[in-house]
Amino acid sequence: MSFGQRTSGSVIVIGGGQSGLAAARAVLEHDLVPVILEARDRAAGSWPYYYDSLKAFSPAGFNSMPGLMFPGDPDHYPARDEVAAYLESYAAALGVEICTSTRVVAVRRDEQEFVVVTADGRQLRAAGIVAASGSFASPHRPAFPGQEGFTGELLHVADYRNPAPFEGKRVIVVGAGNSAAQVASELAPVAKVTLAARHPLRVIPQRIGGKDVHYWLRETGFDTLPAPWLDKITGGGVITDSVGFGQALADGLLDVSPMFTGLDGDQVVWDHHERERADAVILATGYRPSLGYLSGLGALDSSGMPLHAGGISATHLGLVYLGLEHQRSFASNTLRGVSADAAAVIAPLAAWIHDAPRALGLTTAEIYVPW
What we know:
By secondary structure, this protein is α/β, with parallel strands linked by helices. Helices cover 21% and strands 23% of the residues. The protein is built from eight helices and 22 strands. The protein has helices at 18-29, 80-94, 178-187, 213-219, 227-234, 245-250, 338-353, 356-359; strands at 10-14, 33-37, 97-99, 104-110, 113-118, 123-126, 128-131, 153-156, 170-174, 192-197, 203-205, 207-208, 211-212, 239-241, 254-258, 262-264, 267-269, 275-277, 280-283, 308-309, 312-313, 319-321. A five-stranded parallel beta sheet has the order 3-2-1-7-22, with helices on one face. Strands 8-19-9-10-15 form a five-stranded parallel beta sheet, covered by helices on one side. α1 packs parallel to α2 (80-94) and α1 (18-29) crosses α7 (338-353). The longest helix has 16 residues, at 338-353. Mean pLDDT is 91; it is low at 1-7.
């Protein structure tokens, strides 16, 4: 099928990273036709654009997606470029239409179909939409009192590449998750580093009882705990320590502090008005979903977050999401968890496209009220 010719059973998947690829495979399993639209020039998601030393937070043996084993020692933690190469191999093996360098700018509803508008002006029709565009393009940058006058470097981890520019400097890393721990640990041998967080850090060791922590996350069922429970359990964040953060802390190579209260000139203002000169503040404060193309559809709330339940749109029949943080569980938005999420959201999408309601004599336009 050539690009631009759609059938009533086609599904447009927006995003060609791990979430989009997982979605496409699940769509195929339901006898539908997936077409992936990827804004960048390769189907590898955001992996090629992260910092140089990034490794997957889980071992290779846990990172295989259905149909293709992740190569190499199953106990090793794959580097950034390994994951990117794996995703490109996965994309090639799927055998589906993937349109790279195709940025989606809008989605609208037209009668019984969606219309997807691309940056070059094309309008593509589909029976269903999977919004799997990730969040790397929308780094969350919290505002701090006095940051406009801060003379040090203030950057998000999305712009961080390696420790070289920070050698010998005073650096504050802000965050309480895996990226914050990984960047702080990498900087610690060459810079004076403090990790600042709004909440106490929850660190799970890499190995428990002789097995990698991800074995226990899977075997105990922790990976499947629903999103509404996670904040109550974790207090907002967990570090799975695959990078030696705990050891670096124990060795005094870095320290941890409650969040600073503001910035002033070349200084960080800590609690109790204590001040300290800082050369750089690196924000490992996460990302927000990159879903601006859905704003005109009315599918997002006032802050740009999707209105959904477990990845199923609460506003539009035929629209689902994939790759949201804690979308359904602790493992959501990870290599080890995204395919389970894909199966969960594509099944109802397929039922809608195959017109399951009509088979039961139900339509959205005709509702019988017996009074």
